[in-house]
Each structure stands twice: as structure tokens, then as C-alpha cells.
Design brief:
By secondary structure, the chain is mainly beta. The protein contains eight helices and 59 strands. It has a 22-stranded antiparallel barrel.
Length: 992
């Protein structure tokens, strides 16, 4: 386009958008994103960014595919201010906990997640667990398994863009489901191909290794400071000429590796060695169990369009072999979409996607015998990993495993190859829409969406496993579907300088899910896993999950001279989860945008755009079904039932969230620098609280009520700049920073000023709500201190034990930040991104246990002390109340077991600040002169990496610690966390 040509192009987007094409073309040369861009908002309505009175961010397809994550949510980490993706470190599927602007509900951790919407169809981000807690040692039960969910199955190759609607204002038209914000996914459609067929082929291979290990010590071996008759520390597997057996302990407070010879375990004898063997460490006896994981993915798509029809078809196959042996998954994704003009006024659109995730084995997580994390904690420095490899004792295949040091510690290869957890999940997501243009002012949209899933899980436990001596088998069937229907009438018109548009609609959403469980408790024949081979069978009658929400909503937009924009929304929901008297609830929102640079004629080469925006919204939030009446549950005794322990509330009201938000957007220096800042406050009232204690005389222990208020305040900042941009070289830098402060303003009167325990993990960490405190506050027992801050010990040399719990810290950081860089040097593109957080804490069960057992390097302190005694640094309180220096020595093993005991949350809790090199990529696009000769549109090769480097003081695997407790991802607690992967991969992209 010639510079002197100034042609006005009017884009019909609700009748509001008019853009100077010449200016837009120039902006595209200077920046990758301008304030005039179109974004997808609630209900799939497309809006111009400048018209919005609230904060949104958009991630394009190229950014999602830059480092090829198995789960698309990983590509968002660190790139959107206020967004947090949290996983439990529980295996390859990485089910995410997705929150925007912090937690706002006391109901449960799951009730704080953002809504995921695909092409206008809300997804179900709820997971179904195994019904078991993360901490289960000694319980004789099983463990949680990360089986993934609908959201984790979405194929990143099919995503066109992701728009993040952060606050209730942005998501107000989604009602209850959008109260915590929404993430809008638009899939690819094949539009804009000018009648030409285009075939895309995207292939990548990636390889995983463990990013970070705990600091294991390999200077001392198994034992508990036992001495022989000569007064020397010794070791003996079983009783021997050297003394009594010391080989039955899991502790590593034994002799130092110093060239001695002891009677040890001999795998050839399946017992004590005939001769003394060299006392030596096996430094690869934990790390050597893990392998280099791999992922291979191939995607092919065909797309085309003309003036009437556009279509796209895509097929993807992904194969993952995870870092733990015999674990991983296969995933098939197929997608088809077509848009067609049936007549000049009637348009139709169909989108269908199919996903199948299949795995023969996924790892269990948590602290119990079946978890590989449990084995890693209990593995001793002097034990060779190879001793476990045969799995079964000779002649006892499928009956008795090799676990020579404790019957409570299962063989790691038995865990990997025999204790399998399989899944076969199939899902279909689809929507059909019809749009009829009545005249130039009116159109009608009818859209219907459906989500269907069918899932089969099995769990196998062989003979001689610690918790199932006679074996165990389970089949779990999960079926569900979700229907969403919308009918919307849209109007647009122009009255002089005023553009007006309006939308009014009705919607309905119905969700149903059913879970069936069958158990074989004990197996008649070892190694035969079927329900017919059960010694005893159990069956859980499926609990229904049915919920329906009907809605009416409206949206009114005013646009004055493309300078002032005003949005007004209103919605009314009727939820089946609430009682008839309170089933209907109404909520509105108002948002406004002022283009100050145009209003005050401030545009120049240095100031291209200055926008002020402000919004207010109220959003209702209902609850899960079956909270209104008491229902009997099936008892473990045949033919009998049990009364519920929680008294239902037939008078529940909806929770209400009120949000105020304001911010500014700037575009400077010919759009080479854009910056925006947002401040917000959100108040959540009438919290639906489920665990309020009642008198036992009522026959119940808990009840459900409405009470309490939570306030969230925060600031978000984002910057994008092109310091250099010319034909052969450009540098783009993006940064974001966000903080959120949460405060509990009120609690139910029933607590009489006492804290409300929202949840607990492992029976030691409690998430207590206290007026003036914050969600995420972690309570537990800790140390006692003298007035001058010294640790108090008792006369026995052990730490003084408090009678009251105290606040240890908060699971959420003070702030988060991300930084992305991209350099283009002719045909090369180099990009990398960092992100991190400041403060926040996490409790580590693994740290407690490995410290208690002397497995970590920090337990080397005091090993050379005379007689193996150590004196704790601190004071002892005297009878008169004064304090004197502690001088009482106690055995090393006793000291570490006491000071870092499981209940001492304080000494096992650590700062989770970190900085990660989240991803990096180098790509080369072959020049057009070559690709045209090959009849290709594009040919690009790349090398990429994820989680390549990390700085943190957190002592275990990953500071982004969370626990999978049944199906809930709980931040701030590490129980049986599995290693995080460092990934390096190669990518090939061909278009023709």
C-alpha cells in the first residue's frame, strides 16, 4: 500500500470498530500486538481490544507450539500476569490447577479454578480421583493417581489462540462458571486460505531427564549407631559373628564408608553373605532407577476456504514414555471444522474434536508403599539397586517379591512393572451454530455444544505387596456428558457519532456424571487380574452427579466516536444446586474504556495510544449438587445404609463476588513500546462453607452454611517492547509482574472467634481461616522460643513441645513475574523465557522422613562427634523461669528424628522462591528461494528446551510443590512428589 493512500476500512464488529488501514498496516510493521486487535470475549463475542473496559491477554498458536508441551497449559506459565498453573508433580499427564488473581473461595481448593471454554463450550475441569489421600502410610490402602481430565486432553496443535479473561467483569456473561475468570480457547478453522488447500505437518521429538535431585548423602550407610563388643560402629545383615543384626532399619546412621568389610546382603544367597563384603556406597541407587523419557508427536492438518466455505481437518498422534520405567501414555486427537454460508443470510458452523488417552501404566504418587517416592525415601546408601531387579524370589514368581530390608518397602521394579494403573479415556467435544442475518441491524445466533467422555481405569496390585498380601484389582468406570445451548439476538446500529449494539439471549447447561467401582479384594490365582478371580468382591453403588443451570442474559454496548466505550451486562441464573426460594439470582456489570489520546488530541510519534479503563461487576456463584438434603450412603455391610455425617442446608444462598477494576494502557514510540497496568479488588460474600462443626447430640458432626467474606486486592503490569526492529534483525521483549493480597474479613459466628479449618494434608498441615488472615495460611506445630529468639529444649535434650499450633507461612507467593525475549536474525529466531516467584512456603513430608533417617547431606553435621551424640543449639528453661544454655547431648538419630519430626511443620517448611529458565528455542526457516523450488509454503526446523535451569533454595525436587490429595491439587505441601523433567527436543514444521 502506498504511503499517500489513506483508505478507511470499516470492520463490522458489533458495529463498533473503524480502523485506519494505513495506520494499522504501519503498526503491524512495528509491533506484534496493537491496541486495535480483535479478541474473543465471553460467549465467543469478538471485540476490539481498545473497546474493553477490563484486562485481557491473548496467547497465539505460535507461542503454544514453541516448546511443545504434552499439556497445553504448561505453555502459559509465566506469560500471563495473574495466571498460575499448578500441578502436583505426579506424572506425565500433569493435571493443572488453573487460577486467576488468587483464591477467592473457602469452600475447597477445587472451587477456585478458572473456567475453560473451547469455541464457546464450557469445559469440565473437575477430576475424579481414586478416593485415597496422599498420606496413607500404615493405612493399608492405595494412593492417588494423576489420570488427567478433559482439559489436559486438548490438543495444542488445534488451538488458534487463547484469550485470558481475568476478572468477574470479563467473564460476567458466563455466570457462576466464570466467577473466577475464564480462559477462552479458539480452535483453528481454515479461514483465510483464499481457496487454496494448505497441508501442515508438525513433528517433534523431545527427551526428558530429572531437573533437580535432593542432596542425598553417600558418606554413611545403613544403621542406628550400633557398636560391637570392641566399641566400634558396625553393620551386619542378620545376626553374625560381628553382632546382632542392624540391617532391618531404614535409617542411614550406620558406619562411615571407610574401606571396612561387613556381613551384608548377598542377592545370590537371598540373605546374608558367606564372607564379609566391602562396605561401600552405591551412588546411583536412586537416580539409576530413572531413565531418559521421550515424547514423539506428529500432526497433519488440511485446510482451505473460499467465499462460501472454509474447513479444516487435523489428526495428531502423541506417544510418551515417561522418566519412570514402564510409565507413559498414548494420545490420539482428531479435529474437524467447517463454516458454510447456506444462503446470503444464513451461516452455519460445525466443530468436532475427538481425543483418546490410553496408558498401560501411570505412576502413583504420595506417601505409601505403592509409590516410587516411598521407595526413594527409604532406599539406603549401601544398597545396590540391581539387587531388586529380579523382582521375584526364585521359584516364587508372582507370589513373593524380593524386598530384603523391609516387608513394608515394596520392590521398585515391582512397583513399576506389576503395580500398574491403566486408563483408557475417550472424549468428544463439539458444537453446532447457526447465524441468521435478519437485516443489516439484526442477527440471530443459535449454538449448541456437547461434551461426552467415557473412561475405564484399572489398578493392579500383585501378591506380597505390602498393603495387599493376596493381591488386589479394581475397575473404575466414569461416564459423563455436558450440554450447553444458547440462543442470542444481536442488534447494531449507528446514530450519528454514537454506535450502539445489544445482545440478548437465553442459555441452558446440563451436566451429568456417573462413576462405578468394582473391587477384587484378594486374588484366587496370583497374577490373574479379573473380577472373576476375586477372593472377595466389593461394589460401590454409583453416586449421581446431575446439575442444571438456566440463564437469561443481556449485553449493551455504546461507542462514541471510537473514543468512549461503555458496556453494560446483566444475567440471571436459575441453578438446580440451590433451593427453590434462592434458585434465582441476578447480577450485573458495567465497564468503560476512554481513549484519552484521542479525546485530548495527544497522538504523536511518541504517544500512539493512551487508554483508561474501569469496570464494576457482581457475579453469582452456586455450589455442587446435593447440598440441600440429607442422603443415605451405602454401608460396607450388605443390605445396610449409613446416615451422612454432614447436615445439609435447605436454605443455601448463592455466593456473590463483587469486583472493581481500573487500569491504563499505553502505546509509545510508533507502537514499539506497549505497557499496561491494572489494579483490582474483589469481595466474595456469603461463602458456602461445608465443614462447620455441630453438637454430636444432633447425630451429625458438620453442617453447611452461608457465611464469611474474602477480599482480594492486586496489581498486574505488562510490558512489550521492540528495542530493535529492522529487515535483518529484531529484538522483542515482554515482561509481566503481578501480586495478589488476600484477606479474610469475616467468618461464621459459629466458630466463636476460633479458626475455620478449610482442609488439612497428612494430618499435620492445616489450612486455617482466621479473621485478618489469608487463604493459603498454613498452620501446624513448630518450635518454642525464648524471649531472645533461641530454641527451647527440654532437660532430656529434645525440643520443647508446644500445645498450640501456629501459623507457619502462606502457600502463595508475594508476587510472580515473567520475562520473554525473542531475537530474529534473518532466517533464525532465538527465543527464551524466565519466570519465577518471590516467597511463599511449602511443607515437605519427604524432607522430614529423609532427615529423620539421615539420608540428606545436612544430617552429616555431628557425625564425627564423640559417642555419636549431638547437642541442640538453644536453651533450657529453668525451674525459676530463667534460661540457660542447653548442654544435654543425645544420639544423632534421636536428634534428627525429633527436631525434624513429621509434626514439626516449621522445620520441614521452606521458602519456595525460584527463578526458572522456563523455555528456550532456536529455529531456522528456510528461505523462500529454496521452499518454492520444493513446492513448499514454509519449512522450519528447531531445537527447543523446557525447564532447562532453576535457582531455588527449596531442598527437594521442585519449589512449585503441590500434593495430589485424592483428586485435589493442594499447593503448599509436598507429599511423595515425583521429579520434574528437564526437556530438550527437536521440531520440524512443513507447510505445502
Amino acid at each position: 500500500m502506498r504511503k499517500e493512500t489513506q483508505k478507511l476500512l470499516v470492520l463490522s464488529l458489533l458495529g463498533l470498530v473503524s480502523v485506519n488501514l494505513a495506520a494499522q498496516e504501519k503498526a503491524k510493521k512495528d509491533t506484534i500486538r496493537s491496541i486495535d486487535e480483535v479478541v474473543v470475549t465471553a460467549l465467543g463475542i469478538k471485540r476490539q481490544d481498545r473497546s474493553l473496559g477490563y484486562s485481557t491477554e491473548t496467547i497465539k498458536s505460535d507461542e503454544l507450539l514453541r516448546t511443545q508441551n504434552n499439556n497445553w497449559t504448561g505453555a502459559l506459565e509465566g506469560k500471563v500476569a495473574g495466571l498460575k498453573i499448578q500441578t502436583a508433580g505426579a506424572g506425565p499427564l500433569s493435571t493443572p490447577r488453573i487460577t486467576l488473581r488468587g483464591d477467592v473461595s473457602m469452600s475447597s481448593m477445587d472451587d477456585n479454578q478458572a473456567l475453560i471454554v473451547v469455541d464457546g463450550v464450557p469445559m469440565n475441569n473437575r477430576s475424579v480421583g481414586t478416593g485415597t489421600p496422599a498420606y496413607g502410610a500404615g493405612s493399608g490402602g492405595d494412593l492417588p493417581i494423576d489420570y488427567g481430565n478433559e482439559v489436559s486432553s486438548i490438543n495444542p496443535d488445534d488451538i488458534e489462540s487463547i484469550t485470558v479473561l481475568k476478572g468477574p467483569t470479563a467473564a460476567a456473561l458466563y455466570g457462576s462458571r466464570g466467577a473466577k475468570g475464564a480462559i477462552m480457547i479458539t480452535t483453528k478453522s481454515g479461514k483465510g486460505k483464499d481457496g487454496k488447500f494448505q497441508v501442515n505437518f508438525n513433528s517433534y521429538s523431545s527427551y526428558d531427564t530429572v531437573l533437580k535431585w535432593p542432596d542425598y548423602q553417600y558418606e554413611y550407610g545403613q544403621g542406628t549407631l550400633t557398636k560391637n563388643t570392641a566399641g566400634q560402629f558396625y553393620y551386619s545383615y542378620g545376626a553374625s559373628a560381628d553382632g546382632v543384626s542392624t540391617g532391618g532399619t531404614s535409617s542411614a546412621f550406620g558406619p562411615k564408608f571407610d574401606g571396612q568389610y561387613f556381613f551384608q546382603y548377598d542377592p545370590n544367597e537371598n540373605g546374608q553373605s558367606k564372607e564379609r563384603q566391602l562396605w561401600r556406597p552405591y551412588k546411583d541407587n536412586i537416580k539409576g532407577f530413572w531413565r531418559t523419557g521421550s515424547t514423539y508427536s506428529n500432526n497433519i492438518s488440511i485446510e482451505s476456504s473460499n467465499d462460501k466455505t472454509s474447513f479444516r481437518s487435523s489428526l495428531t498422534y502423541l506417544k510418551n514414555e515417561w522418566m519412570m520405567p514402564n510409565t507413559g501414555f498414548d494420545r490420539w486427537n482428531a479435529q474437524f471444522s467447517v463454516d458454510h454460508k447456506l444462503t446470503s443470510k444464513l451461516k452455519s458452523s460445525i466443530k468436532l474434536s475427538y481425543a483418546q488417552t490410553k496408558s498401560d501404566n501411570l505412576p502413583a504418587t504420595g506417601y505409601n508403599n505403592q509409590s516410587i517416592s516411598y521407595f526413594m525415601i527409604f532406599q539406603n546408601p549401601n544398597v545396590d539397586l540391581a539387587w531388586y531387579k529380579p523382582i521375584w524370589k526364585p521359584g516364587q514368581e508372582n507370589v513373593d517379591q524380593i524386598h530384603p530390608f523391609s516387608s513394608f518397602i515394596d520392590n521398585p521394579y515391582l512397583i513399576a512393572y506389576e503395580m500398574t494403573n491403566s486408563v483408557n479415556r475417550k472424549g468428544i467435544t463439539g458444537n453446532v451454530s447457526l447465524n441468521y442475518q435478519v437485516d443489516k441491524h439484526f442477527d440471530v445466533l443459535l449454538r449448541s455444544g456437547m461434551i461426552w467422555n467415557d473412561e475405564l481405569r484399572t489398578q493392579r496390585r500383585p501378591y506380597s505387596s505390602a498393603n495387599y498380601l493376596k493381591g488386589y484389582y479394581r475397575e473404575q468406570y466414569i461416564n459423563g456428558f455436558n450440554f450447553n445451548n444458547d440462543l442470542m439476538v444481536n442488534y447494531k446500529n449507528k446514530f450519528g457519532n454514537l454506535n450502539v449494539s445489544a445482545s440478548a439471549g437465553a442459555g441452558s447447561q446440563y451436566e451429568e456424571q456417573k462413576t462405578q467401582d468394582y473391587f477384587a479384594i484378594g486374588l484366587k490365582n496370583p497374577g490373574v487380574y479379573s473380577l472373576t478371580n476375586a477372593i472377595a468382591q466389593d461394589f460401590k453403588i454409583p453416586k449421581p452427579y446431575d446439575k442444571m443451570v438456566n440463564s437469561l442474559y443481556g449485553l449493551l454496548n455504546f461507542n462514541y466516536q471510537e473514543k468512549v466505550f461503555l458496556d453494560i451486562t446483566a444475567r440471571n441464573d436459575w441453578s438446580s444446586a440451590l433451593p427453590k426460594a434462592n434458585r434465582s439470582y441476578f447480577y450485573p456489570s458495567v465497564a468503560s474504556s476512554f481513549i484519552l489520546s484521542d479525546i485530548f488530541s495527544l497522538r504523536s510519534n511518541n504517544l500512539n495510544m493512551w487508554k483508561f479503563r474501569a469496570s464494576w461487576a457482581k457475579v453469582g456463584n452456586d455450589t455442587t449438587p446435593y447440598q440441600l438434603a440429607n442422603y443415605y450412603s451405602v454401608s460396607s455391610f450388605p443390605g445396610s445404609v449409613e446416615i451422612p455425617s454432614t447436615y445439609a442446608n435447605p436454605n443455601l444462598r448463592p455466593e456473590m463476588i463483587t469486583n472493581i477494576e481500573a487500569g491504563m494502557d499505553f502505546s509509545l514510540f510508533k507502537n514499539r513500546l506497549t505497557y499496561n497496568i491494572t489494579a483490582y479488588q474483589s469481595n466474595s460474600k456469603d461463602q458456602i462453607i461445608r465443614n462447620v462443626p455441630v453438637l454430636w447430640e444432633t447425630g451429625y458432626s458438620l453442617k453447611v452454611i452461608n457465611a464469611g467474606e474474602i477480599r482480594n486486592r492486586g496489581i498486574e503490569m505488562m510490558l512489550n517492547a521492540y528495542p530493535i526492529k529492522n529487515k535483518n534483525f529484531s529484538w522483542n521483549i515482554s515482561a509481566n509482574w503481578s501480586m495478589n493480597r488476600n484477606k479474610i474479613l469475616s467468618l461464621p459466628e459459629e466458630f466463636n472467634g476460633e479458626p475455620y479449618t478449610m482442609g488439612s494434608v497428612g494430618g499435620v498441615v492445616y489450612y486455617n481461616a482466621v479473621v485478618g488472615g489469608s487463604l493459603g495460611d498454613m498452620y501446624g506445630y513448630g518450635l518454642m522460643y525464648s524471649p531472645d529468639g533461641q530454641v527451647i529444649f527440654g532437660s532430656d535434650g529434645l525440643t520443647a513441645k508446644p500445645t498450640q499450633m501456629k501459623k507457619i507461612g502462606n502457600a502463595f507467593p508475594l508476587w510472580r513475574a515473567g520475562l520473554q525475549n525473542e531475537f530474529k536474525i534473518k532466517n533464525f529466531t532465538i527465543s527464551f523465557s524466565f519466570d519465577g516467584q518471590y516467597k511463599g512456603v511449602a511443607y515437605s513430608q519427604s524432607h522430614h522422613k529423609m532427615t529423620e533417617q539421615g539420608k540428606l547431606k545436612h544430617t552429616l553435621v555431628g557425625r564425627e562427634n564423640p559417642d555419636g551424640l549431638i547437642i541442640g543449639t538453644g536453651v533450657v528453661q529453668n525451674a525459676d523461669g530463667s534460661f540457660s544454655t542447653n548442654v544435654k547431648g543425645i544420639p544423632l538419630s534421636t536428634y534428627y528424628a525429633d527436631y525434624y519430626r513429621r509434626a514439626n511443620v516449621e522445620t520441614n517448611t521452606f521458602d519456595t522462591s525460584f527463578v526458572k529458565l522456563r523455555d528456550a528455542r532456536i529455529s531456522y526457516s528456510f528461505p523462500k528461494s529454496l521452499t518454492q523450488n520444493l513446492k513448499l509454503t514454509d519449512l522450519t526446523i528447531a531445537i527447543f528446551g523446557r525447564n532447562l535451569w532453576m535457582w531455588t533454595k527449596f531442598p527437594l525436587f521442585d519449589p512449585e510443590a503441590a500434593t495430589l490429595d485424592n483428586a485435589t491439587v493442594t499447593p503448599g505441601v509436598e507429599i511423595g512428589q515425583l521429579p520434574t523433567a528437564r526437556t530438550v527436543g527437536f521440531q520440524l514444521n512443513v507447510k505445502f
